[in-house]
Amino acid sequence: MKPISVFSSATAFTHKNSRLYARRLIAGAAKLNRNRRTEQTRMENVSEKQEERDRRSSPVEEVALVVPESDDPTMPVMTFRAWFLGITSCAVLIFLNTFFTYRTQPMMISEILMQIAVLPAGRFMSAALPNKEVKLFGGRWRFNLNPGPFNVKEHVIITIFASCGVSPGGGDAYSVGAITVMKAYYKQSLSFLCCLIIVLTTQLIGYGWAGMLRKYLVDPAEMWWPANLAQVSLFRALHEKDKGKINGVSRMKFFLIFFTASFLYYALPGYLFPILTFFSWVCWVWPDSITAQQIGSGYHGLGVGAFSFDWAGISAYHGSPLVTPWTSILNIAAGFVAFVYIIVPICYWKLNAFEAGRFPIFSNQLFSADGRKYDTTKVLTPQYELNVPAYNSYGKLYLSPLFALSIGSGFARFTATLTHVALFHGRDIWRRSKAAAGAVEDDIHCKMMKNYKEVPQWWFLILLCGSIFFSLVISFVYKNEVQLPWWGMLFAFSLAWLVTLPMGVIQATTNQRPGYDIIAQFIIGYVLPGKPIANLLFKIYGRISTVHAISFLSDLKLGHYMKIPPRCMCAAQVVGTVVAGVINLVVAWWMLETIENICDTEALPSDSPWTCPKYRVTFDASVIWGLIGPGRLFGSGGLYGHLVWLFLAGALLPVPVWFISRMCPERNWIRYINVPVMLFGFAGMPPATPTNVASWLVTGTAFNYFVFRHRKQWWQRYNYVLSAALDAGTALMGVVIFFALQNMKIRLRWWGTEVDHCRLATCPTEPGIVIAGCPTF
């Protein structure tokens, strides 16, 4: 019995341990599962938080690096200081820019100069003014003279005022350019009231378009407006306490160093050594070769080997290359190389297209068949219309080959822009259209802007309808002066409404604005041939109102980034625009009435500074598209008729790019191909030269590819600050040089002041064409 008892006890003990072991195993497994579930839950929470951070932050890396994701809604904005300094800055800038634009060497002073100058002025006012409340109109309107320290939001509003003194077209309202052409070139007698209405309506109508498109071009995070990041970076450098430093240099100190360096350096290309603007060494190597100088001249040729050591020359036509995304620079470079270094040489030397050998390879002048400058007075009637018998007797109008091909690229650029936006952004635009009245997922900046009252839509509608009404009044009351009938005005408004959105999308994402001024003038030239003044007015209302709308939208995005209340932005923009428009016209009117023979290069002394080269281009355009008309130049049988096919080519070019991007989504680089921006590489030539564009491309590549890729921390901290410093220093020295030296007729004359040593670059190459100073073949 004993063995059984022992066996039974052992069995019982083993069974008990087995159950205990099983319970422990089950408990361990349960604990392990609980730990796994806890870890999974934790990871899911981390992922959700990361997704939330990603969703709330900007999806654009450059914006996330530069724009602060914070706001202080208690900051005063529309203070007495802001109004006083803002209106003063606007008035000073528009006066200077209007004054400079008539000179042989025009210069545009940007708002960055005032952005820097008003900072010490604002801080002085905050220290000197009393903390006192002022009552006006029986106490119904009150404000405090000194509500506290000068803050960044006041600074932004002042800069918005100042920007109204800088037209997107280059320093003055484009409508004043049209008025200058009408008075100085066509010798028209105009009413000041008529001109004032033209100036104000062409700018204020842009607010109407801007107000309609805020939901599409300001609110979406993808519409990031790259140029605004330079402004944001500068504001932060001027106002934020910079604790962390790289190599011991704060952003403010960095700005002051390069501002001073830029200011001092510009004395060389601006006065002492102007040859640095375009360093055309090829012409020195082959001083007697027409072909070599046509290839190498920075001013009158293809600019091969030439480079600009002048920041004003680099940023003259495409703006600062430091604020343009690398993908846009790459697209522009592709189009520029294909156009300037392949297409133009083949057309000029191989094909002799458009009888090119009779004329310089690059010029903005108009020519007759014998290679001489075209005399428009011989084909103009006293009513400023085309004298057809005189035109048939005098002969056809000719263009330089690069000028003609640049016009053709404008045809392709217009249709390519519409197709590109429809294919690549059409779905998003449609989604935004449907969701405009409902809830849309916003980034952090949109969420913070909801703390402020939005501008009612009817404010913009009043500006839009009022501008349209007074524009139509002009067409009835001053119909003989403007030549544009009421239906032409409505046609111009319809065209502007059609193209503002796609143009805005391109600029908001690429920092480039493919213009369509050629298209506007082309269309009305067919509808109203032989009427150059009508052509000018149609261009103003059909294209320039779009330019102003895009400029206003860009300012709204700057206010969006800096958390400026929308109603404050609207007030600053409207008041600044009215002030700038009035001063702009008054200064231009004074100069046109008091400076004898202004803009008339035949009657002016050889050393006169008032030759108006900028407005000469405007006049030439009115002759091409208005006086002679596109039917004679680009119609059936016209010398440039084949260029019209580029309308169709431009519409088709974006299609294969879109198709490949849909078929091969894994190839991300395809989506960066932007055909309209490629075609923008041809834009502005002339008056822009290939050297302007090539120098811009090289500089932009250096900073926005190599520095951004290999020194991202430096780029994040200093890139936009450097851009602002170069702009401000160059502009300030330009002002000093003019008033201290050039205006006093203190001029240097030596080898380095001869801006281009390529005297043969403007010569024709066809046998039998005789031009003074050129060899005859």
TrEMBL record:
Chain spans, region Disordered: 33-60
Give the way it sits in the membrane. Multi-pass membrane protein
Report the domain of life of the source organism: Eukaryota
Chain ranges passing through the membrane: 80-100, 190-210, 254-287, 299-317, 329-351, 402-424, 458-478, 484-506, 518-534, 570-592, 639-660, 672-698, 718-741
Keywords from the UniProt entry: Membrane, Peptide transport, Protein transport, Transmembrane, Transmembrane helix, Transport
Which residues fall in a compositionally biased region of kind Basic and acidic residues?
36-59
Q: Which GO terms describe its biological process?
A: protein transport
Q: Which family does it belong to?
A: Belongs to the oligopeptide OPT transporter (TC 2.A.67.1) family.
Under what name is this protein listed? Oligopeptide transporter 3
Per UniProt, what is the name of the gene that codes for the protein in this document?
Answer: OPT3
